[in-house]
Amino acid sequence: xxxxxxxxxxxxxxxxxxxxxxxxxxxxxxxxxxxxxxxxxxxxxxxxxxxxxxxxxxxxxxxxxxxxxxxxxxxxxxxxxxxxxxxxxxxxxxxxxxxxxxxxxxxxxxxxxxxxxxxxxxxxxxxxxxxxxxxxxxxxxxxxxxxxxxxxxxxxxxxxxxxxxxxxxxxxxxxxxxxxxxxxxxxxxxxxxxxxxxxxxxxxxxxxxxxxxxxxxxxxxxxxxxxxxxxxxxxxxxxxxxxxxxxxxxxxxxxxxxxxxxxxxxxxxxxxxxxxxxxxxxxxxxxxxxxxxxxxxxxxxxxxxxxxxxxxxxxxxxxxxxxxxxxxxxxxxxxxxxxxxxxxxxxxxxxxxxxxxxxxxxxxxxxxxxxxxxxxxxxxxxxxxxxxxxxxxxxxxxxxxxxxxxxxxxxxxxxxxxxxxxxxxxxxxxxxxxxxxxxxxxxxxxxxxxxxxxxxxxxxxxxxxxxxxxxxxxxxxxxxxxxxxxxxxxxxxxxxxxxxxxxxxxxxxxxxxxxxxxxxxxxxxxxxxxxxxxxxxxx
Length: 539
Fold this sequence. Notes:
The chain is of the alpha/beta class. Helix content is 39%, strand content 16%.
């Protein structure tokens, strides 16, 4: 596969890939790793295939260019599917390479034989297998699919005995392929002529409210959004993944939007909702009950069966915002009242407990680290205070799995981010989530990455336990047992600390900041307020 490996690395570098993550096999992906090493495209060994895919997702979100991962055949390909699903629902552009049996072995041998494309294609955005004579065209088609919106994962299955690139696509082939790919992100066309109803709604609005989602995280998007809200004095909410597009400290910041109960007061004061990059994949799966009409602006058309968009403007977001600004006729918002509403939201989850609460861990850590560190957040009860109280000042300053909401995200995402960007990272993870990817502690230690892992040790799958309580069911299948997290981390060569109070936590963070490489802080959590907190947030 040497020639094909060189071509793949060339296309990866042209796309902006900074590293390849994953777990190698003994076939064709060894040639890909070797070609990458020769071309200054490093390979980073992760503990699991899913961890490799999540690290690639983080690279894509941090850099704004695609990520890449690879796996061995059979069990490796099966294991990466959760990471592929994460990339699909987080709208992250990554390339997934799977090793494969030689072409001649397909249908002959049963050992480790799976149809990788049949396995991955339902979840990926595009999937294909390299074949003799057409490998070059397959690679071309894969990277064309990678460049389209909405972003997502593409999969290339690489049999070890396909060694020749074969016929590469002609100019006519390339035009044909491009025509089959909808929504090229390089489009700069935007206009309001195609949405007359949207123009009318915007022109009539007196209290328009922006809801910014994952599709508006580019630097030029953030600049255009801030320009609009500052000039027109319009408040803006952000989804989890859009944290930082409008900084928490900004005077127009109106809180976090998830389609939950806690943000309803601000939404209900609005007479028009303008979803900028708002993808329904981020929202809680519950009915849309807001009365204000919704206008959408994004680089791709969103489904409207959940969010009832009255009109959608598809194209370049900064140009679209300029066009809509011309239709806005002042604002009746009192931004001080909006900020008061945000403060009420944040303080409403401050429910006292006798021990160290998850909220206090977030507050103490944020005070010390938010200004200097990117944060990654795992699924779990701690994500409520993390998303509400951790201040973020720039797009992708907080990385979180929201579309898939998978546990085991924060640590491999921190690895992916720290491996391709000098900004240090703090990973906020529950003990259940960390158990799912504990081997990645060794990855962080081996790579000597500037990552502080804070594990919320409450010895339970807390969100599931809360749901059992709500249904008056006995707790079953949620107790994790005692884990000596400090001993586990130190077994991987990672300095570790523990805390059961604010004072101890502040001291542990200070010590972690002095570590040249990764470290772990075990925070012993009193989880008795989780149920009350969830009722406040979600209703």
